[in-house]
Hints:
This protein is of the alpha+beta class. It is built from 1 helix and 4 strands, in the order ββββα.
Amino acid sequence: MDVQWLKSSFSDQPEGNCLELASCEGDILMRESDDPSVVVKTTSAKLRAFLAGAKAGEFDGAA
């Protein structure tokens, strides 16, 4: 299966250390570019909920 990984345009580090996303069969795949062998699979709804929480500050100060 050919997966096209997308990297944020805000990632300007030469070594490319960043989070990459891909869409595959209705799921969202995530990986760190410096360790691409580890892939996390989630749904777009769960990722949207997580991002909304992060933007709202739900994780600020979390240990």
